[in-house]
Write a structure and sequence with these properties.
The protein is mainly β and 184 residues long. The protein has no helices and 23 strands. Helix content is 0%, strand content 32%. The strands form four sheets. Strands 1-4-7-10-13-16-18-19 form an eight-stranded mixed sheet, with no helix packed on it. It has a six-stranded parallel sheet with strand order 2-5-8-11-14-17, with no helix packed on it. It has a five-stranded parallel sheet with strand order 3-6-9-12-15, with no helix packed on it. A hairpin with a 5-residue loop joins strand 20 and strand 21. The model has no long low-confidence stretch (mean pLDDT 96).
């Protein structure tokens, strides 16, 4: 199912059973696997590989050549030497929550969850869950800061554990390695 207002560019492959929300863009050469679920207003850039059973919430950005894996212990053959089939393994997925962004050529090794509004830097390799609003970089990915809903790195506020978005002025509070947005 492809939602109203969505567009699929040439050479992209959207497999049977995939559900793409409204106003999404799937770029050139991208792959969206069987049973992948994408919310509304998502962007999957050129040559990204979104393997089933990935789940993308509304407003998720997947950069060029990103890979969302689905096999914890990949092998082409079984222990007896026979070729693996779809029945010989259990796919596991990557879950990406609302508004999160995955930078170009990053890899998310399933099973992991990327929290709401988090940003995974280009080229990072994510092997563990990423908290909401986190900015993660490197191999393996590690948190180096926080980002707001506008995508900008947050700056320290006046109080300890407080953060401010330089773009929107929104305030956030950090507690126990978790960030929450203050409601005005």
């Amino acid at each position: 199912m492809i939602g109203a207002g969505s567009s699929i560019w040439h050479l992209a492959q959207v497999r049977e059973g995939a559900r793409i929300g409204e106003n999404c863009i799937v770029g050139r050469g991208a792959y969206v696997g069987t049973g992948v679920v994408m919310g509304d207003n998502c962007k999957v850039q050129n040559y990204a590989l979104v393997y089933e059973p990935a789940k993308l919430a509304d407003g998720v950005f997947i950069g060029p050549a990103v890979v969302l894996t689905n096999d914890t212990y990949p092998r082409a053959i079984n222990a007896d030497g026979s070729l693996k089939s779809a029945h010989d393994w259990e796919p596991v997925g990557v879950t990406i929550e609302r508004g999160a962004s995955i930078g170009a050529r990053a890899t998310c090794v399933a099973p992991v969850t990327i929290g709401a509004w988090a940003t995974v830097a280009a080229g990072a390799v994510v092997v563990k869950d990423v908290p909401a609003y986190a900015l993660v970089v490197g191999v393996p990915a590690r948190r180096i800061g926080w980002v707001g809903e506008a995508g900008m790195p947050l700056i320290a506020g006046e109080r300890e554990g407080s953060w401010v978005c330089p773009s929107t002025g929104a305030h956030y509070v950090e507690s126990n390695e978790t960030l929450t947005k203050e409601i005005a």
